[in-house]
Write a structure and sequence with these properties.
elongated, TKL_Ser/Thr_kinase, Cysteine surface protein, mainly beta, Furin_repeat, six-stranded antiparallel beta sheet, Growth_fac_rcpt_cys_sf
């Protein structure tokens, strides 16, 4: 039969051989050999122990046969108990029982429940007594020492092999034993015999005598189990009997024990519990059955119920808290609202719960509390940033600006974030911050970014441009700047070319001037004693008329040279040229220099070469053409006779 809650269909009691697990389900209680009235396991089979919390049988560890979770009382065959734990017996131990090694291999003796040997003395043990030695050793006073030796007259040592002893420097065969010493004293017997007080005795026992595990004949010991004799002592007795120090079986019946073995009580009678030393003590009066201590109840009488703290309480305490008592009267099946089942009793829910199934596990929350995502009722005052009322079941539905909704509660957005989806995903940041990977980053942390707008970089340093997302400044070419640089470079090149041209012109003119100075006389007016006549517009000359051959005859076709000085009174440079009428058949005229530039305050000496071609009278005008440089002024023409 199983009992359920009507509303939740939650199981609260199982049928026999089944127990109620943490999921409120009935699970088969395996390895249990005894169950109490409340359907709880109180005893497990060998190799298992009773878990007090789950009331189920758990397997014992490390080859333990009888024990609990932390301590082993008895180990399985082939294992030895040491400090409450089972350890595999030493391969030098030939027989072990009752957690102890009883017999060791030849050459080893039992010390502290272990087989230890003295390799130096090469001794063979029976029990803890050395009975014989290996070759080249001899038994003296229970210990093996260097084998007896003798010396002859030649100082040679004499040794005898096994089965012989030394007598008068001769090796004599042992009469009965396998190994003997001086005077034929027997120290190791043949296979069918055993050694007793240095005498080899036949292993065939007399009537009513029993051979022990070492081959010795012993008197029959009463109540000894399976004739378990070692060196004349019983090592394991029948139930209710135990071996004493003399190896005899004495009656050790344990009071109130229902099942007993040689190690102690295995199972106690009702209302008694098993102690660590395997004895039976009475349970507390309130307990039907108990475990470990008198007050740790496993079941209660009919008018009481078992609490979670393993104590038995009266059913009268359920008044006012229990809605329905179990049919057998062993506790409450269904509790009132605001209470939960504690074992088979009812305990009050926490103040934050309206209904619960454990003290701190609410099903519904009380006034001023809401059900959190973890199933815990929290105070509504703990929610910060909620927009609107807080629902008992659903918590907060919408959060204020600067908060985001998570698990029915509001949590503040990250640093410098105005609106966000969650702690790590920001939608809008404060001024001067840029959204990068849903985080708010100050623009100063963005390389080359100078200004921001709408959470994006809006201006970058020179030679850098904003990417499409507005999150980075990338290096880029500024075409207009390159054009300006190209133009500046071209201007510089042109200026350099002009300077070169000017310098070349200067050099050429200077060279021409030097060449000119070789053939032309230019002098400073202020430093000359020539008397000049002004022709106007800054042009001066030393003569207005040139007379050729005055009062003298002139040879025909012979060139006559005349000089005239023309100066520039102005500050500006003037280009001066003397020109004559062309196409005259009576004479020809040549002027040197034909044209020249004269600086202000300077004058030039012109040579006029005239060739008369026939007898004639000449009266002509020579034109002086001047033009001021660096001005748009027209040419000025002056004449002389």
């Amino acid at each position: 039969m199983m009992i359920y809650k009507e509303k939740t269909k939650e199981c609260i009691e199982c049928e026999k051989r089944y127990y109620l697990n943490s999921n409120k389900e009935c699970q088969y209680n395996s390895h249990c050999i005894k169950i109490n009235n409340q359907n709880h396991c109180i005893e497990c089979e060998y190799g298992y122990y009773l878990n007090l919390n789950t009331k189920t049988c758990k397997i014992l560890k490390n080859e333990c046969k009888i024990g609990n979770e932390t301590y082993c009382y008895q180990c399985k065959e082939g294992f030895i108990k040491e400090n409450g734990e089972c350890k595999e017996k030493d391969n030098k131990c030939n027989k072990s029982e009752r957690n102890y090694c009883l017999k060791c291999s030849n050459g080893y003796k039992i010390e502290n429940n272990q087989c230890n040997g003295d390799k130096e003395d090469q001794c063979y043990y029976e029990g803890n007594n050395c009975v014989s030695c290996s070759n080249r050793y001899t038994l003296n006073n229970g210990k093996c020492s260097n084998k007896e030796k003798n010396q002859n007259g030649k100082n040679e040592e004499i040794y005898c092999e096994n089965g012989k002893y030394i007598n008068n420097n001769k090796c004599i065969e042992c009469s009965k034993s396998e190994i003997c010493q001086t005077n034929d004293i027997e120290i190791k017997c043949k296979y069918e015999e055993y050694l007793d007080n240095n005498k080899c005795i036949n292993k065939t026992c007399e009537k009513d005598m029993i051979k022990d595990q070492n081959g010795k004949c012993n008197n029959n010991i009463s109540y000894c189990l399976n004739k378990s004799y070692v060196n004349g002592k019983c090592v394991e007795c029948l139930n209710t009997y135990s071996p004493n120090l003399n190896g005899e079986c004495i009656n050790t019946k344990i009071e109130y024990c229902e099942e007993q073995n040689t190690y102690g009580c295995k199972r106690c009678k009702e209302r008694y519990y098993l102690t660590k030393d395997m004895k039976c003590l009475k349970c507390d009066d309130k307990c039907e059955t108990c475990y470990g201590t008198s007050t740790y109840c496993m079941s209660c009488s009919n008018d009481k119920y078992l609490r979670n703290d393993k104590t038995c309480q009266s059913n009268e305490e359920l008044n006012g808290t229990c809605l329905r008592i179990l049919a057998d009267g062993s506790g409450c099946g269904i509790c009132h609202k605001g209470y939960y089942r504690n074992g088979k009793g009812c305990s009050k829910c926490g103040k934050e719960c309206l209904t619960c199934n454990q003290k701190d596990k609410c099903i519904k929350c009380g006034e001023g509390y809401f059900m959190s995502s973890t199933g815990i009722c929290k105070s509504t005052t703990t929610i910060k940033g909620c927009k609107g009322e807080i629902d008992k079941e659903y918590g907060c539905r919408e959060c204020l600006t600067g908060y985001y909704l998570i698990n029915k509660e509001c949590s503040k957005c990250g640093n410098k974030c105005i609106t966000c989806l969650n702690e790590k995903e920001c939608n809008k940041c404060e001024e001067e911050y840029i959204i990068i990977n849903k985080e708010c980053i100050h623009y100063s942390n963005i390389n080359k970014c100078k200004e921001t707008k709408n959470n994006k970089c809006s201006k970058c340093s020179f030679w850098y441009g904003i990417n499409e997302d507005g999150t980075k400044c990338n290096k880029e070419i500024v075409w207009w700047m390159i054009m300006i640089i190209i133009i500046i470079i071209l201007i510089i090149i042109i200026i350099i070319i002009i300077i070169i041209i000017i310098m070349i012109n200067y050099i050429i003119k200077r060279k021409e001037k030097k060449e000119q100075e070789k053939t032309t006389t230019i002098f400073k007016i202020s430093q000359s004693n020539i008397k000049f006549i002004s022709l106007g517009d800054g042009i001066i000359t030393n003569k207005k008329e040139i007379e050729i051959g005055e009062g003298e005859e002139i040879e025909v076709n012979k060139e006559i040279r005349e000089l005239i000085c023309i100066g520039n009174e102005n500050k500006e440079k003037k280009k001066i040229q003397i020109s004559s009428k062309e196409g005259n058949e009576k004479y020809s005229i040549r002027i040197k220099p034909n044209i020249i530039t004269i600086e202000g305050g300077y004058a030039c000496e012109f040579e006029i070469f005239i060739t008369i071609k026939c007898t004639t009278k000449i009266k002509e005008q020579i034109m002086i053409i001047s033009k001021t440089l660096n001005k748009t002024q027209e040419e000025i023409i002056k004449s002389i006779q």
